[in-house]
Amino acid sequence: MNREVYGKLIFELSRPGRRGTRPVDNSTDAFPRAELASELTRTSATELPEVDEPTVVRHYTRMSTNNFGVDSGFYPLGSCTMKYNPKVNDALSAIPGMARLHPFQPDATVQGALRAYWTLQRSLSEIGGMAEFTVNPYAGAHGELTGLMIIRAYHDERGDKKRTKVIVPNSAHGTNPASAAVCGLEVVEVASLPDGTVDVEALRPLLDDTVAAMMMTNPNTLGIFESSIPEIAAMVHEAGALMYYDGANLNPLLGVARPGDMGFDVMHINLHKTFSTPHGGGGPGSGPVGVRAGLEHLLPNPRVIRDEATDTFSVVREDSNSCGSVTPTVGNFAVELRALAYILTMGRDGLGMAGPMATLNANYIKEALRDVYKLPVDRVCKHEFVFDGLADKSTGVTTLDVAKRLLDYGYHAPTIYFPLLFHESLMIEPTETESRETLDEFIDVMRRIAAEAISEPDTLKAAPVNTPVGRPDDTTAALEPIVTYKQLRDK
Amino acid sequence: MTHHYLPQTGEEISAMLGACGMKSLDDLFADVPEQLKLKRPYDLPLGMTEAQVTDYFENLAAENRPARVILAGAGYYDHHVPAAIPALVSRSEFMTAYTPYQPEISQGTLQYIFEYQSMMASLTGLEVSNASMYDSATATAEAMMMMVAAGRKKNRVLVSETINPAVRRVVDTYARYHGIDVATIRMTEEGTTDSSHMEQMLGEGGVAGVIVSQPNYYGIVEDYSGFADKIHAAKALMTVNAPASTLAVLKPAGEWGADIACGDAQSLGVPLSYGGPYLGYLTCTNALMRKMPGRIVGKTTDARGNRVFVLTLQAREQHIRRNKATSNICSNQGLMALWVTIYMSLNGPEGLREINERGRDAAHWLRDELTATGRMRPMFAKSPFLNEFAMDTEGLDLDRLFERCAERGILPGVVIGKNQLLIAVTERQSRAQLEEFVELVKTAEK
Predict the structure, then answer these.
(1) Residues B77 and B245: beta-carbon distance below 8 Å
(2) Which residue in B98, B7, B50, B97 sits closest to A342, CA to CA?
(3) Other residues' Cβ atoms within 10 Å of the Cβ of residue B199
(4) Contacts of B427 in chain A (CB under 8 A)
(5) Is the domain of B251 the same as that of B387?
(6) Same domain flag for B195 and B124
(7) Residue B397: which domain range?
(8) Three-class SS of residue B392?
(9) Which of A191, B116, B216, B228 could pair covalently with A202 via S-S, beta carbons 3.0-4.6 A apart?
(10) Which parts of B267-397 are beta strand (E)?
(11) Is residue B373 within 8 Å of residue B441, measured between CB atoms?
């Protein structure tokens, strides 16, 4: 990453009359003009830049040098599973035989695409221990919403209309309650024990015939495996509710255990976490949803169906049994192709090692830093763990300062101030694709920062200093929002 | 043997386990109850080499029959993709970054989102844009929920019958679970929104908002003059759904007096790729900014006095509002927002205008030529259109026509009903290719 800020906007490079591409050849190959009535056409100018192609290419290239990706360096961002994104996946996702297919062209002409979708769906079903998956949802949050729709459709179908509550642990990510609210469900939080696991005794009185589902990650937000899960699942099922698995933390279980075997009825997976597809600065992701046997008919349309006798595939776009449609197409297809390439390249052997290696890497860092950072839950962790800031609380150095100082040393910061269970949460997830040397170097830097907190706390307060820009003024950004170039220019 | 994505060797594994006070990898999972452990390998193939997986994908692609001339639209259009776009978007600093939560090392992402917001606000004629949505259908569902949230106790949303039914299905699904009452504004015989029916339903009260589309599903450019006044008089909001590219020439949501614009930005040079990834856009008036779902990037300054960009107004977002949220979206289509931002930068105002005018002129020529074959006729002959139109195929054997066209690498359109073919033209098809298609229609079988 470049240490100097680039910072120009494309609008500031614009000069009237410049062109960045030539989309139409008007010298030959023309058609008669077919003007539309003026009341239907645009009167205002489109304020787009006028720039030549070399300028465009240099602008975005220079902009990229102010960005930090997984390829730039270690990204120990808790709960985000920033593993390496294999290059062959990108190449295969864009081959012309796939990229130039229209989503509504006849099924007979897209058999390879449908086979890819179906194979991915079957592979995820095997990994999740589920009967069937839809790969349509566009993101993890979209998958959650879809999963909750399936759960509501299940209760509706049984005429069980009273079930309006979803139980989530108080350590859950904010997306869980938000998804429930959008799905028209009411959220009830269940308390956690000091180790962050669900308090089974607190759960018991919450379970009655108004509960639609219990929503959990496992391992939980602290990276701790919920060992009571068989008991929780039995209690929830006894109350007539379903178990929803939030796949945000699936990675350490690869090769180890399956949500379906734990008693979960519906689950989603984040392909951009566990299955290595690029995060893309915030998307596109993909959030496939799986269901146990007996719920398959509730999966959303469109659905890809295989006829076994002829080994041919077709798309079901409408049917009244399903929970509805959350996408018009089969989803972020090129993302799905990347995940399929990953599964095939890893194979059962590679996938089987991914969970244990992710878990080993996390425990290795935790054990090496626990004397200088406060470890509030002292257990074997899974893919991630949480420190509650520095062990020495006398310096006034906060988790934010530690995170910002890490940027100076060439690392992305861990997830900070989440989960909300601790005041100074610092959540570290290394993933399985980092070498021991990378982990050792990170450990050294974390120890150096802990030492700096004592010897030169002001340096940490002022961090970062080696990055393209310094700490931003978030307050002004929110109080006087400037969100377009027009507003910026007119100011 | 180690896998090439997994660096740790056997020796390192032993040493690292030792550092954790453990002897075997099983010790890492001692807390997982025995009955939950998977005691077998997955029922999946062994890992493939890069050459093997490439062959596997080539074989899959060989089962497809991609067209060279794509006249299918229905919301997704085949435009040329300038080579500079994939070259820039695939830079790993963009592609492998996370959400820009650390602005000090994410100015690249934040800056292009700011550019994207600026361009989308301008295209739609509205004041503010978010950082993008998943796609047109979900953006429309979000617009619906936004109107209901703004309308306090009002719970009814009117949707024109002329909207893309694939979008409508998603809107209906969200409405069903979110508890919104969606009612349909009838379509006239000319394939346009029946404004008197809308007025009648507005008059019945309880309407939070109205959703129309432009051009509509049948490619018709509707005249929404007076709609905004009628809708606002009923204290409701107006949303216009439109493919982004067409906004360069058609009157945009803001000029119709609408409050919210949404739709797919796929038409800004995003590959069709059998369904995605695409991206949705959502823009609105300043008054609605704090009701807007998704991320927003704003300008501020840093401790060193630089102009910098940050995620802002996060109090609106799901991770803060939790169960009070009216949207659960927590990402955007980041990389696709970069894609269309570069597309708009390269094409500029002139390029986008030329692309639309070329599609318009070619589409009008093609509709006339197809009508002249006597084999099909326009479904809505009197209504204006841009680059897409619906034909009544009057008993032609469409399966056979598709098959004969497929042999020549032509995808004739999207079948939208019995004897109904929706045809879209863009700048991507040459005159010779369109003439070839006309010839095939001339000799089409009943």
Answers:
(1) yes
(2) B50
(3) 17
(4) 23-24
(5) no
(6) yes
(7) 69-80+348-442
(8) strand
(9) A191
(10) 280-284, 296-301, 307-312, 377-378, 388-392
(11) yes
**Structure tokens, A144:** 């959650």
Residues B327/B220, Cβ–Cβ less than 8 Å: no
- Let me know whether B186 and B335 are in one domain: yes
User: Secondary structure of B395-410 in the HEC alphabet?
Assistant: CCCHHHHHHHHHHCCE
pTM value is 0.97
In a mutational test of the B interface, the residue from A1, A64, A152, A415 whose CB has the highest number of chain B CBs within 10 Å is A64
Domain count within chain B? 3
Buried b (16+ CB within 10 A) or exposed e, A188-213: bbbebeeebbbeeeebeebbeeebbb
Is there a domain that residue B211 lies in? yes
Least CB–CB distance from B275: residue in A69, A333, A352: A333
Assign B446 a pLDDT band (cuts: 50, 70, 90): confident
3-state per-residue secondary structure call for A456-472: CHHHHHHCCCCCCCCCE
Residue count (chain B): 446
* Residue B275's pLDDT band (cuts 50, 70, 90): very high
Residue among A11, A280, A346 minimizing CB distance to B334:
A280
B390 within a domain of the structure (yes/no): yes
Cβ B153 vs Cβ B215: under 8 Å = no
Closest CA to A454 of A375, A409, A397: A397
**Residue A170 confidence (pLDDT):** 87
Q: Which of B191, B117, B259, B98 is nearest to A85 (CA)?
A: B98
Same domain, B303 and B403: no
What would the mean pLDDT of B306-325 be, rounded to a whole number? 80
CB B7 within 8 A of CB A433: yes
Q: Which of B2, B42, B416 to mutate to test the interface with A (most CBs of A within 10 A)?
A: B42
How far apart CA A27 and CA A2 sit, in angstroms, is 44
Q: Measure in Å the smallest separation between the Cα of B404 and chain A Cα atoms.
A: 13
- Widest pairwise Cα distance in chain A: 79
3-state helix, strand, coil in chain A (%, to 5): 40, 15, 45
Domains annotated on chain A, with CATH: 88-345 (3.40.640.10), 353-475 (3.90.1150.10)
Question: CB of A106 within 8 A of CB of B102?
Answer: no
Nearest CA in chain B to A189: B323
Q: What is the Cα–Cα distance from A359 to B289, expressed in whole angstroms?
A: 43
Average pLDDT, rounded, for chain A: 96
Residue A266 has φ and ψ, to the nearest 5°, of -140, 140
B136-150: pLDDT as tens digits? 999 999 999 999 999
Q: CATH number of the domain that B427 lies in?
A: 3.90.1150.10
A135 pLDDT exceeds 80? yes
Rounded to 5, what percent of chain B is helix, strand, coil? Answer: 45, 15, 40
B165-178 vs A175-182: helix crossing angle, rounded to 10 = 100
Q: Where are the beta strands (DSSP E) in A308-369?
A: 312-316
Inside any domain, residue B55: no
Spatial neighbors of B268 by CB under 8 A, at least 6 apart, are B79, B244, B245, B339, B340, B343, B344
